[in-house]
Amino acid sequence: MGRMIRSPRAVRTAHRCASWLAAIALVGCQGREDRAKALGFSECGSAGCTPGFDAGSDGPGEAAVAASCPTWNTAVAVNPGDDLGVLTPEQFWAHRSAFVQAYANLALYPSPYLITGPAQSGIYGSIDWSVGWLFVDPYYIDNPYLLSFTNIPGQVGAAESRCPIILDYGPDCTATVTVPAQDAHKWFELFYDNTIAEPGRAQLTLVNALDAGFSYASIDLAASENVDAAFNAGPSSIVGGVCPVTRYFYHHGKSGLNNLSPYDPATVFALGQRDVTTRIAIKLWRAAPGSASAPSDATFVVRID
Question: Which pTM value belongs to this model?
Fold first, then answer.
């Protein structure tokens, strides 16, 4: 496993991260609605969150991802997420593209990488350029190589952002994000110490996988640990089935700011226990596979030690 690499932005945003941790520490004193706001989460994906386009309906094109991963032997920096104010489309895309280009050697994203691309137009086409951003969303935008995030179902806010993590891309076409053992409790707290959802219920948010050209996903139960194989299982569910990745888009949300619309019931799953070794192995495909057992084009593993 490679060592964690920190972007210079980590220093510049230390104060913001401290505020984030303080907000988390205070949520125990608040009611259900205030608790969600203090965590920086915004419910979305139902009423008031319908996009004005068919989000992600077009395929990414054959050139979106390399056929193999010979250059995938890289430790990738994990960024804390810059504060984003009101940006023009050009400014926003320059910001996002800089993080994509930082690891262009992985050949993961389309080239050229355009905001009007087949997958990108669905993801970014509903941004309101007259308002700013909910403060949790830059973590998604500034980490394009985190292909999946784990969050409370229907909420914006990734468990991975709560603690330092390590991200490695390996030559076997497997990318692994690791939550070190000393910080694992912070990851689990999100799913067990909340009043927003049933304890242990979680959801995978695959917005960056979709942006990178992966249109189908499945949790490989044989390669996973501490994932309930029965909860929400089905042929079109990510739990052992083949799930189309289509639903993610940024828009002017109920907060009055731009935020990700994250809810996809097909990507909801359940953890078996709290505070135990956990592996979530997510198989990703560019085109629809014959079955969930088909070899994946890439695999993204969330590992909690």
Answer: 0.79
